Structures are given as structure tokens and as C-alpha cells.
């Protein structure tokens, strides 16, 4: 029988969350590096390069890979013969670790968890509570899997109860194109099959923590139906040509995981959950000997590269940019932005649109300005701002027509695609939508030279700021003519046999 301290559980959860905030799993880095080396699409290769440079910077600087430091998922496998040394609720012990990690002054992590989710949506400030799953298993140890799951990829989860005769492949292939690029591909696609609705979702979530091994599976061949399914989906999803950040390319998924469980004769529950370029998870065991040590990964795993925009990139002065100049940009163009831009995301946009609806004055003048959809991590030391990557632009679509027509806004910066109505509004009002690379938050923050709070201070990371930037790299996602790179890019790289199926 092992005697394990709940204080050790708390400390190890805190240490693990700090560790995964700035260290990608080694298998993930190896897979990303291979994807970058073989990528042929210039836009996708540039995005992958930014992700890899960002990842290495984070490993060296011990700062978060992504500004969305995630909602914490913890899986506990508790041995039957474990005796706890303190009489503390295990969920409280885990949440104490989450709180400690997210409030660490040396590397504060962004609090993204809200209470009253359908009402006030108030931020808890310390990212608690975690989502915790516990199982009792044979043995005298506690197995712990800690993961931090970003909201962009969670938003793309899919579920259906299929008929027994329905094809899982057909369902997955019908859903992946609808998921867009908000989950920041390439990543891992995880599929749970069977059980009940909640079991299928849990199967998919757990399966994505397994090591990336699709190349080994390809080399040896499948041994069962689940492995056959993995190989088929891996080939077919990559053949869609979605590519890194949805820009079109050879790699959309680095691996596909499949987990199954017995189910009712009348049902076939199927869950799909993607993981993103900010994949963060770590497994460890507690055996009573104390808090485990997590060794840093070998930096040789990362390519020793730096980021530099292409020679064709267009320099844009945000102080003097005009609509006539923006009209010359085309979807897929790389821009380097310098000057002052505004920030704001979901909560700020709702307030702005509510004020417009009431014919009340706005706290900020948006005419001919650019707004960056971002919720950064707090700065430390001499930083101007912490990691500050883009959030999903699609979520702002419901506000875009009003912002473009009523405020004179010229440009928007986020990640992922825009919907049809927003594209129409961009065409009508002569605006543009740009993307920054999701998963390059620390790299992007180095282009921000000043930050000033302007409005809605109570919204915290969702408040409106003014950033001053120097050569911030972005790609034109939707130009003033309404052409979208998220349509043209994948179409160019999609394999014909996928088009024809």
C-alpha cells in the first residue's frame, strides 16, 4: 500500500500545467517539424515555420505557447491500494494546483474559465474549476494526465448518434470541412465510437493524449478495424487540402486517434474532437515518493530557425493606410503591419453593438482603424504584453456588419475563416479581414512595442486596448472584393479523388 500526499498531487498538477504551457510534447514537435519539411504550399509552410519558431522561443523563454492557456482537463487513475495522507477532497486538491499554476507570478497563465456560463459569464480569475475525471484501478499508484485544452479547438467538437449501418468515415468526412480553421490545424483528430453520448465524447478526449504514431502504423499495417479507420481517415482528411491554418496545404492532421466502447444495438454514438497547434498534455505517476520531476525536452528536437517574412511581403503603415491602398491587397498576400491598432473580442464587441443599437456614443473611434481579435496573457518583467495570438474571427461574424457599416472600421485581424454574411459585408463596405497565425502567440507579442488600455477595463483580457506594432506579420484572408483565402487555398491543394467522392 502506498501513502500519497494530496499536497504532492496539488504541487505536481501545478508543475505540470506550468511545464505544458511552454513545452510542446516531443512527439508533437517531431510531427510538426516533419510536416514543415515536406510542406509544398508557401502559405502553409510559412505558418508552420511561425509555429515552430514560436514553440522554440517558448521553450527557451518559459512563456505560454498560446495566449489561450486552456481549460484544464485532469484524468486520475487511482489505485485501490492507495492511502491518502490528508483528508482533503481530491477535486479541491487538483483545483488548488490549477490555481497555483495560473497565478504563478513568474509565468502567469490566462484565466479563461467563466461561471454562470449562460448568464453573467464572470471570469473566476484563476482558471478553476478544472474538468476532472476519476477512475479506481488496481494497484498502489495514482496515474495523472494533465491537459490544457484551448477554446478554439473545443468549439469544433462534433457529436452524433448514427444508425448502426451508417458509416463513421462518411460522418467524419462530412464534418471536418465544416469545422473550418478555428481549431488551428494541423493537429490531432480524435474519434470516440460507442458507449453512450457522454462516453463517446470522453473516449475521444482521452484518445488524443496518446503518442503520435501514425507513421509507425503506416509502416507495419493495421491489426484491427480501429487501426484501419485511423489510416483511412488520416489519408482522406489530409487529402481535403485544408492545410495549416486553413490556408491550403498537404498536412491538416498529424495523426488520427480512434477509441471504441461497446454500445446499444440501436445506436452508434460518434464523437469528434480536434487538438490544435497548441497541443498541451503530460502524464505522470504518484507513488508516495514525492512530487515527480519533469525534465525539459531536448532542444535539438526543434529546427534551429528564425522567422522572416517573404521578400514579397507588403509593409503597411497603419497611421496612413487608406481604403484605396487596402483595395490593392489580394487574398493570400502577406502584410507587415506597423503603427497603432485596436483590440477587442467577443465581450467588447457585444458592448459596442449594444451601444450602437441604443444610439449611444462609443468609447473609441474606429474610423479607418484595424481591430485585432485578441485576449493576451499578462506581461511579466520588461514585456510590453504577454503572448498575444489571435482568437477565432468567425465568432465575431455576428457583429461584423454593424461594425463595418456603423463605425467606419477598415480592417479586422483574427484567425480562421469568415462566414458568407461577413464576406458580403466586407465587399459592400470596402473592408478587409486579415489573419495572424494561431499557435504563434509569443512570436507575435514580440512585434508589439506598446500597449494602452482604452475602454471596458472590467472585461480584463477582453478589454479594448491600443497596441503599437512593428512589422506584425499577417495574411489577407478576405480582400475587399470578397475573395477568401480559406476557400481558394484548400481548393488548390485538394486531391481530385476527394472532390469526386
Chart the SSEs and their pairings.
Layout: E1 2-4, H1 6-22, H2 26-38, H3 42-61, E2 71-79, E3 82-84, H4 90-102, E4 114-115, E5 122-123, E6 131-137, E7 142-149, H5 151-154, E8 158-162, H6 168-175, E9 187-194, H7 197-207, H8 214-220, H9 225-238, E10 253-261, E11 268-274, E12 281-286, E13 314-317, H10 323-326, E14 334-343, H11 346-357, E15 370-372, H12 397-407, E16 411-414, H13 420-429, E17 432-435, H14 441-445, E18 448-455, E19 464-478, H15 485-493, H16 496-499
Helix pairs in contact: 1-4, 2-3, 11-12, 12-13
Q: Please, could you describe this protein's structure?
A:
- By secondary structure, the chain is α/β, with parallel strands linked by helices.
- The chain folds into 3 domains: 1-148 and 282-287 and 298-305, no CATH class; 151-277, no CATH class; 314-489, Fe-S hydro-lyase, tartrate dehydratase beta-type, catalytic domain (fumarase, Alpha-Beta Barrel).
- Helix content is 32%, strand content 23%.
- It contains 16 helices and 19 strands.
- It has helices at residues 6-22, 26-38, 42-61, 90-102, 151-154, 168-175, 197-207, 214-220, 225-238, 323-326, 346-357, 397-407, 420-429, 441-445, 485-493, 496-499; strands at residues 2-4, 71-79, 82-84, 114-115, 122-123, 131-137, 142-149, 158-162, 187-194, 253-261, 268-274, 281-286, 314-317, 334-343, 370-372, 411-414, 432-435, 448-455, 464-478.
- It has a 5-stranded mixed β-barrel. A 4-stranded mixed beta sheet has the order 6-2-7-12. The protein has a 4-stranded mixed beta sheet with strand order 8-11-9-10.
- Strand 14 (334-343), helix 11 and strand 15 form a beta-alpha-beta unit.
- Helix 11 packs across helix 12.
- The protein is globular, with a radius of gyration of 23 Å.
